Each structure stands twice: as structure tokens, then as C-alpha cells.
Amino acid sequence: MRYFIWFSYDGTLYHGWQVQPNGVTVQSELQRCLSLLLREEVTVTGAGRTDTGVHARRMAAHFDTEAAFDPQLLTHKLNGLLHQDIGVYQIEPVSPDLHARFSAVARTYHYYVHTRKDPFIRHFSLELHYQLDYQLMNEAGRILLEYEDFGAFCKAGSDVKTTLCHVTHAQWHQTSATTWYFEITANRFLRNMVRAVVGTLVEVGRGRMSLDDFRKVIEGKKRTQAGESMPAKALFLENVEY
After folding, report:
1. Could you report the per-residue pLDDT of 162-176, keeping only the tens digit for each?
2. Which of 73, 155, 195, 213 lies at a C-alpha separation of 20 to 30 Å from 15?
């Protein structure tokens, strides 16, 4: 039987999602706890790979097992065994051909920023000490929807077969006088893509890059021409759609 597991996590203390030989990851912790509870070796396949320090508000993964269990009870036991920075919402049986990664049709990320010192959001939002033109950054965000090749925002050395992505939404939202977040939705994302996009949009917002320059960065397909990669702590995988 195949099961989907829906969960969230604070990625601060983890070396990303994917299992690493010398670091604790979200995937390794889920597999360890599921294997203990089901008394068999369990492999979990996630909807994507988040980098070190990146968080997820609603992440999906699947695992296969022949063990008999009550999904609601297993959810309860799993939450009791996992560290407090990983929370499972639901475990449900699904069709054996539903794949957490390849069946996903859209993924949404948020990147959070604030301009006033705030001890309660400092671990999950980036404090900025300069003014940004959010209207201009939203104009640049709409330009992203016109393109499909985002090689300019892909981490150098990534072993991706294609840099093509279909971005359907890219917009900054203000939530208070001092807080904003950038929301972007696409069918898939390249490694480090969202943080590189945000870093480049910030260059536009600070007046260091024009909209024409922003287009040239995308069309140039070179990571060295784009803005810096923003810190991981402010990035959240918000949702995965199937």
C-alpha cells in the first residue's frame, strides 16, 4: 500500500530535506521514526528538496508498506516520536501510481522580510535595513511569467537535466507597516531558485537594476549575472498541489 503523509517543519536545525551522510535531515528523521513504529525499513519520498535551513508549512511525501495500521493512530504516535520541530498533519492511503514528487502539479513558496527589529520573527524572516520599491519589484515579478528557462537562478553545479519551469504567480504582499512576503508558484523549482529570484528582485527594488536589466539576466541564463542568494531562514515551502 502507498500512503501520503502531510507535514510541516522548522528547518533551522536540519541539513535540508534529503538524507545526507554527515548530517541530520527531515527525511532521515521521518524514515527513522516510521521504521521504528512500523517495525520495517521505510523509505520516504518527498515532494521536493528544501535546502539547509529552509522551512515547510505544508509538505507532502509518500511511503510504501505492507504493514497494517490505523492512519490516525500512526499520525498521533509519529508526532509523539518526532522532535517538536516536525509536525505531521495527516497520513492517508492513496493510489499506488500517485508520486509525491512527480505527480505534483504546483508548488508555492513564500519569502518573508521585515524592516523593524522584531525578536518574535527573527528566525523566520529577514530584517532589511533599506527601502524597497515593492511596486517595481511586482512589475519585475510579472516578467518572470513571460519566460520558461530560469538557468540564471539555478545554483551553479546543479545536476538538473533541464532549467525549464512554468511560473504562474510571482508577487510581493504587504502584511503590516513593516512586514512583507514574496509569493511564487510554479510547476517545479530549480535548486536555490527562489532565493536567487528574491535576491535579484531586491536589486530591482533598491534601484540597482532596471526592468530591462532584469530581463537581460533571465535571457542571459547565467547565475553570475543574477542577484545574491538570500538567507535560507526566511524561505517557506507553503503548499504542494496535486
Report:
1. 999 999 999 999 999
2. 73
Catalytic residue among 51, 97, 118, 133: 51
Annotation marks residue 51 as catalytic = yes
The residues that bridge with 23 in the sheet, in sequence order, are 20
In tens, the pLDDT along 188-205 reads 999 999 999 999 999 999
Asked whether the predicted pLDDT for residue 159 surpasses 90, the reply is no
Tens of pLDDT, residues 90-100: 999 999 999 99
Contact 61, 7 (CB under 8 A): yes
Amino acid at 17: W
- What is the C-alpha to C-alpha distance for residues 39 and 135, in angstroms, rounded to an integer? 54
Asked if 173 and 111 count as a contact pair (C-beta separation under 8 A), the reply is no
Write out the E strands in the chain: 2-9, 45-46, 55-64, 86-94, 106-114, 126-127, 167-174, 179-186, 235-241
Q: pTM, whole model, 2 decimals?
A: 0.95
